[in-house]
Design goal:
This protein has about 170 residues and is mostly helical. It has one domain. It contains seven helices and two strands. A two-stranded antiparallel ribbon has the order 1-2. α2 packs across α4 and α4 packs antiparallel against α6.
Length: about 170
């Protein structure tokens, strides 16, 4: 029975079943939708393993000669970890608007008002405030806002939105 249906479709006697795709843009026209909490979290985890873990390894074992050395100088160690992390992620965002994790889950950072690539100053501000946002637990704000924006995104005027498909219309 399945073969006959396939043959009917192949020979054009019946139309192939249509797959329904979810809309890529929100109700506001061509404005991309905000990134979901799930997409944001998966991108964060990916970036943590691709960017943060190698930095932590270098700091733990090459700078402080192991866990004990790091434990003796925790504040200095975290500064050695966070400063390169901020610089690397900011450079990714300045270049393409995406970190490797964001690229993997098709989201990007844009200016919240214009929807275009944010300025370098806004990205640097965003990345520095992101550390404070994480340390002070103000990132919890994203669970209560419909836009899922965090405090560092609100203060820097940026937003994480769904990226256009590769090969489609660009930024």
């Amino acid at each position: 029975m399945a073969k006959q249906r396939f043959r009917d479709v192949k020979q054009g006697r019946i139309a192939p079943p249509q797959t329904r795709q979810k809309p890529r843009a929100s109700h506001r026209g061509n404005t991309p939708r905000n990134a979901t909490l799930r997409e944001r979290f998966k991108a964060f985890l990916t970036d943590s393993f691709m960017i943060l873990m190698p930095i932590m390894y270098v700091v733990f074992y090459l700078v402080f000669n192991g866990r004990e050395g790091f434990a003796a100088h925790k504040l200095l160690g975290w500064i050695y970890i966070l400063v390169p992390y901020i610089i690397i992620t900011a450079l990714f965002l300045i270049k393409s608007g995406q970190t490797p994790g964001m690229r993997a889950y098709s989201i990007r950072v844009v200016d919240a008002k214009s929807g275009k690539q944010p300025s370098a100053a806004a990205i640097w501000l965003r990345q520095v405030l992101a550390v404070w946002d994480f340390l002070l637990f103000t990132w919890i704000l994203q669970f209560f806002l419909k836009s899922h924006r965090t405090l560092h995104e609100i203060l820097s005027g940026t937003a994480m939105v769904e990226a256009p498909e590769p090969g489609g219309s660009g930024r």
